[in-house]
Each structure stands twice: as C-alpha cells, then as structure tokens.
Amino acid sequence: MAKIISQDGKAITDSTAIEKRLAAIGITLKQWPAPTSPRARELMDKQALSDNEKAELLKFVDNRFEELKRDKGYQTRDLVVIHEDIPGLPDMLAKFDKIHTHSDDEVRYILAGTGYFGFVDKDGSQFMLEVTAGDYINVPANAEHWFEMKGCARCKAVRYFIDTAGWTPHYTGRPVALREAAHVLTAMCLFGLLALVCPPVGSATTPERSPYAGQQQRDIKALSAKEVDDYRQGRGMGYAKAAELNRYPGPSHVLELSSPLVLTSAQRQQTQAIYDRMHNAAVLLGRQIVDREASLDTLFAGRKADSDQVERLTREIAALQAQLRFVHLRAHLEMVAVLMPAQIDTYQRLRGYRDGHTGGHQHQH
C-alpha cells in the first residue's frame, strides 16, 4: 500500500488523498494487482532471477504491456530485480538517489518488494512516496525526483520505455532536504527485517508479554502487511472456506488444475469469466476495507476517536467484509454449475480433501 511522508514528518495513507497529492504535480499512481498464480508468486518471492525466469515473470503481466503500447506508445520493457547480494549495489543506487529529471516519463510497475520515490512539490517542499507490490507509477518527464531503497534492499519492478535514452538522469543540483523522514523510513524497514530474524530479548522468561508486541510498528495496527497486500490483491484469505471445504470448487484453483480436470474450452472460458468477476470485485472491496481500517487507525493514533466516528467506520468495515465474503462464496456457487460431478470429485482428490486428508494446499480460492 502506497504511503506519503511529508517534509514535516506527517504520513498520508489514504489512497484517494495520495492520488490527489500526486496528481497535482502530474504523477499518476494506480493499483495494478500483481499476478496471483502459484508460479508467479514463486518467482516474485525469489531473491534473484535468471534471465529466463525474468522473461517468464514478464509474461504474467503481458496484458499491462499491451495496454501501455496501445494507449501510450511504449515500445520496450525490462524487469529490474534488486537484492542485497548484487555486487556494487550501493554505487548502482547512488545514480538515482540525487534529485534529477528525465527527458521521458519514468514508468514502473512494482511486482514485489518496496521502493521510495522522493518528489519536489510546486512550492519547493519535498515529500517521499513509498511504493509496494501492485503499485503502478508514472513520473512525467522533467519532474524533479529521486529514488532510494533505504534499508529495504529487495524490489522487483517492470520498467516501460518509449526510448531507453529518455531515462538518463539529469541532475538538478538541488539538495535532498527530506533526510529526516528518509531516516524514519529506513528504520521502519530495518525493524521489519530484524523482526523476522531476531526474537525479542527475554521472550523465553516473560510469558506475560502481549502477543501484540511489535504490532505497534504496523502502518495499520489491525492489519499485517500480508493482510493489507492480500486485500489489495483480491486474494481469497479463507473467505470461502464454507464452500471450498464442502465440495464447491473455487475458480482460481480450477484454472490451475485445468489440465488434470480436462476442462473443455467452454468450461475454461466460463471459469475465467467467473474468476475475473470475483477478482475485480474483491480488489475493489479489499482496497475499501484497507482504506477504512487506515482511517480508523488514524483516529486512534491522533487521539481524535469518538464513539460516533468509530461506530460508523466499524459498521462500514463489517459491511464491506460481508460483501467481500459473498463475492468469494458466489464464485464457488457459480463453479458448481460449470463442472461435471466427476470433475468435482477429481478436484477434491487433487486438493487433498478426500478421506480427511488436508494435503499441502493453502486455500486462497
């Protein structure tokens, strides 16, 4: 989920407010859900990729390239994979961490990881934008900006070009004044990395420690980073277990298992249509849930929460979650009308649901 850090240290997490702030200086920010197939996720989770694996991952987002070629005239693309073991990484990143411009638009689609763009506003003030998986950004030609990774050393992003020469940086000489907020972002990212590998001191001798300890560092306290990403990418999150575990297959897994299920061409088209409807609706609802949770968190963080506002937001969140669950369950209902009983039996076996065996699958749909 994108986030703005202003020069005064204030954070903006509401997606509508972020898009409005960026649009004022000509920057476009969109949410393009990252690929959800198991193979795409496997590639996105890897630290490094071979050239063949890069080409394979790019194929999962061919539709985005075709759209940009048609609407914007883009001609080429590549996949940048940044990780901490790249030789000379600091020198490579140093080319872009000073304020500069390009003669062409800078267009990136973040597939995995995190990066930080800095921008110079019309009044000369500066702010930073954190971009994460699913963020598409277009920085217009001649816009003053810079790019950093901070302590987050991993990112996979597609770059789109009309002319690769247009991305040569032209340094303006303006100093980056927004270093304090940059340090805050660095600390936040490093804390997240350390939390994965460093257990809390004294955890073995202090059983009274709250299970919520450490969660106060979250952007949205009620949601983990994975939950935020799952909502924004339209993933199942177990919302349809009542159907999935009672012989109502999900469209995503049916598409994954299309060969062993021996789907006909018509069945494949119907399943894809069911999945697309479900996924598009889930992404829209998921983004709204994240936005409402962010608003609720902001109220409490700013000591401005009152009973009326909290009741309104919690009711809205509950209603959106109910709609989201229905969207997922409805897709499973629709699938039963598409598949033959024998195919459902095969699905049950392949998913590991026969004879009480749960198999190794994690349900997403």
What does this structure look like?
With about 375 residues, the chain is of the alpha+beta class. The chain has two domains: about 190 residues, Jelly Rolls (Sandwich); about 140 residues, Four Helix Bundle (Hemerythrin (Met), subunit A). Helices cover about 45% and strands about 15% of the residues. Strands 1, 2, 3, 4, 6, 7, 8, 9 and 10 form a nine-stranded antiparallel β-sheet that branches. A two-stranded antiparallel sheet has the order 5-11.
Oligomer: single chain
Assign the structural class, choosing from mainly alpha, mainly beta, alpha/beta, alpha+beta, or little secondary structure: alpha+beta
Contiguous helical run count = 13
Instruction: Give a quick account of the main beta sheet: strands, pairing sense, barrel closure.
Output: 9 strands, antiparallel
Cα end-to-end separation = 22 Å
How many domain regions? 2
Provide the CATH superfamily of the largest domain: Jelly Rolls
Report the average pLDDT across residues: 85
| Shape assignment | globular
The percentage of residues in β strands lies in: 15-25%
- What is CATH's topology name of the largest domain? Jelly Rolls
What CATH first level of the largest domain would be assigned?
Mainly Beta
What sequence of helices (H) and strands (E) makes up the elements?
Answer: EEHEHHHEHEEEEEEEHHHHHHHH
Secondary-structure arrangement, i.e. CATH architecture of the largest domain: Sandwich
Number of strands: 11
Radius of gyration, taken over Cα atoms and rounded to an integer in Å: 22 Å
Helix residue percentage: 40-55%
